[in-house]
Amino acid sequence: MKILVCISKSPDTTSKIAFTDGNSKFDENGVQYIVNPYDEWYALVRALELKEAGGGSVTICTVGSATDDAVIRKALAIGADDAVRIDCEPTDAFYTAMQIAEYAKANDYTLVLTGKETINYNGSQVGGMIAEAMDLPFISLATKLDVAGSTATAEAEVAGGIQICEVELPAVISCAKGMAEQRIPNMRGIMAARTKPLNVVAAADIQALTTFESYELPDAKSACKMIDPENMDELVSLLHTEAKVI
C-alpha cells in the first residue's frame, strides 16, 4: 500500500505573532516552525502504523520552498520513507490542494492522509479539495482508521454519536484527535532522516483563487475581575453591563 501524507509547517505555539507591510504579510522573523501537529501526530503516525501492520511505503508531501526542508526532515525522522516538496509558495487552500492532487494523480497512491486542519489557518479545506480534484471518496475528521484489503473503515465523531464509514481504496481521509498517539523521533530516526530522499518537483500551472488583504490580531485580553462570592449584586450588575456574549 502506497500512502501519501500531506504535511505543512506551522509556527510553534509559543511564537510571537506579528504582521508587516501594513498588516498584509505574516512576519516570519524569529518564528520557530514545527510540523503541523494534526499532520504529524495523527495522519503521519497512523500511516506508519498501517505500513508496519500491512507493508507498503509512506511518503510525505509538502507544498513550499526550500525553507521548509528542515521541517520536512523532522517529519522524516519520525519514520516516513521519503518526501516530496512541490516547489512553490502555498498561497491558499485551493492552490495547495490542487498542487498535491496533481502530484498524487501521477503517482498512483492507495491512500492520501491529511491532518484535519493547520493550527495557523484552521481552514480544514485541503483534504476535501484533494479528494474532489482526484475524484476519490473523502472521509473528514476521522478519529479511527483501519484498512483490510482494498477497503478502508473509518470512524468520525458527529453530533450525538460516532459515524462509521466504509470506502473502497484509493481514498482521501483527514485525521483528527484519536487517530494515533504522538511519536517522538529517536536518535536513529533523526540520523536516518538526513539521508532519506527529499525530491523537489516543479509546481503545476495552477492559479490561486483567493488573496489575503490584511491580518488583524485579536483584542488584548482584559484583566480578570475577582468578585467576592458574597457580593451577588455586583456580579449580576457586571454580567448585565460588561459581559460579552461570544
Task: Give the arrangement of secondary structure elements.
Blueprint: E1 2-6, E2 9-11, E3 19-20, E4 25-26, E5 33-35, H1 37-54, E6 57-64, H2 69-78, E7 82-87, H3 93-105, E8 111-115, H4 126-134, E9 138-148, E10 151-158, E11 161-168, E12 171-175, H5 187-193, E13 198-202, H6 232-241
Parallel strand pairs: 1-6, 1-8, 6-7, 7-13, 8-12, 9-12
Antiparallel strand pairs: 2-5, 3-4, 9-10, 10-11
Helix pairs in contact: 2-5, 3-4
Q: Tags for this entry?
A:
246 residues; alpha/beta; Rossmann fold; nine-stranded mixed β-sheet; two-stranded antiparallel sheet; 6 helices; 29% strand
- What is the N-to-C succession of helices and strands? EEEEEHEHEHEHEEEEHEH
Query: How many structural domains does the protein architecture include?
Result: 1
User: For the CA atoms, what is the radius of gyration?
Assistant: 21 Å
Oligomer: single chain
Report the strand count: 13
TL;DR?
With 246 residues, this protein is of the alpha/beta class. The chain has a single domain, classed as HUPs (Rossmann fold, 3-Layer(aba) Sandwich).
Question: Would you kindly provide a written description of the structure presented here, covering whatever features stand out?
Answer:
The chain has helices at residues 37-54, 69-78, 93-105, 126-134, 187-193, 232-241, and strands at residues 2-6, 9-11, 19-20, 25-26, 33-35, 57-64, 82-87, 111-115, 138-148, 151-158, 161-168, 171-175, 198-202. Helix content is 27%, strand content 29%. The mean pLDDT is 92. With 246 residues, it is α/β, with parallel strands linked by helices.
